[in-house]
Design a protein that fits this description.
Blueprint: E1 24-29, H1 39-45, H2 58-74, E2 78-84, H3 86-94, H4 105-108, E3 114-121, H5 124-135, H6 139-170, E4 178-183, H7 194-202, E5 210-211, E6 217-218, E7 222-231, H8 251-258
Antiparallel strand pairs: 1-2, 2-3, 3-7, 4-7, 5-6
Helix pairs in contact: 2-6, 3-7, 5-6
């Protein structure tokens, strides 16, 4: 039985799997510097304006650096990816039949050149440390570590996008017009229960990610979804869907803007 090889931040040798399910599955140990947080970015998520705004109080900066030190000590960023065909993802996307009747992703992925399921986690140690800080009433440090970890989890998704695109480019499957962007269950009309079918295909339990009955992942600082690669124009859509009004983050706008 072939073992899944590992290499720092690159795609690895393909391993043999059921061809009816997965074309390729790869475990990737993402270097910590690819997801390292930065003080301005983390504090921005907490409502502190970035430069050239006024600098945050010294005690806030000190708290950030304490949280960052813990994060760099405990985080173990790992991802798993598996290429799928458009017909395969069509079945995955259907999930439990609870998606919104009209979603941007259902219009985007059929126009993709390549698709890959993926999941990323920082590992359990960071989450356990957040709980420990909160349980011992170190609320400020606990909340700051939570913010640092959430920020870096988002960066993990960005790292995965880059790794997938680099793989496609190096194998002649992408050019300068290709963009690879992430779409996750729970956003853009893709119901959170879609995690179930995604997990059945990808099996991220191999890197320690599990689903609970509410379709939420543990460790908590994890993210999953589908990487959609194709001409950059396929990712452009107006956020005029009914569910866009209730979206708390509108991260799609930022992702599209970062990949013009």
């Amino acid at each position: 039985m072939n073992k899944c090889l590992r290499r720092q931040g690159t795609f690895l040798e393909k391993r043999s799997l059921d061809p009816q399910k997965l074309l390729m599955k790869t475990i990737i140990n993402i270097p910590i510097d690819k997801i390292k947080p930065d003080v301005a970015g983390v504090l921005k998520t907490q409502g502190v304006p970035p430069p050239p705004g006024p600098p945050p109080p010294g005690r806030v900066t000190s708290l950030y650096h304490s949280a960052e030190e813990l994060f760099l000590k405990l985080a173990a960023p790992t991802a798993i990816m598996a290429e799928v065909t458009i017909p395969q993802f069509t079945e995955i996307f259907k999930g439990n039949g609870l998606n919104e009747p009209d979603t941007p992703l259902e219009k985007i992925f059929p126009r993709a050149s390549q698709l890959a399921l993926f999941a990323f986690t920082l590992g359990p140690e960071v989450c356990l440390e957040i709980e420990e800080q909160l349980n011992t009433h170190n609320f400020a440090l606990g909340y700051m570590l939570d913010a640092v970890s959430s920020y870096s989890t988002d960066k993990g998704a960005g790292a995965a996008q880059n790794i997938f695109l680099e793989h496609l480019t190096s194998t002649g499957q992408a050019d300068a017009s290709t963009r690879a962007l992430l779409y996750s269950p729970g956003y853009c009309g893709w119901h959170i229960s879609g995690q179930q079918k995604l997990f059945e295909y990808l099996k991220p339990e191999e890197i320690g990610i599990h689903l609970n009955k509410s379709f939420l992942m543990t460790p908590l600082k994890s993210i999953s979804g589908v990487l959609v690669a194709g001409d950059k124009r396929i990712h452009r859509f107006k956020n005029s869907y009914t569910f866009c009004v209730h979206c708390p983050s509108k991260n799609c706008r930022e992702r599209i803007a970062q990949n013009p």
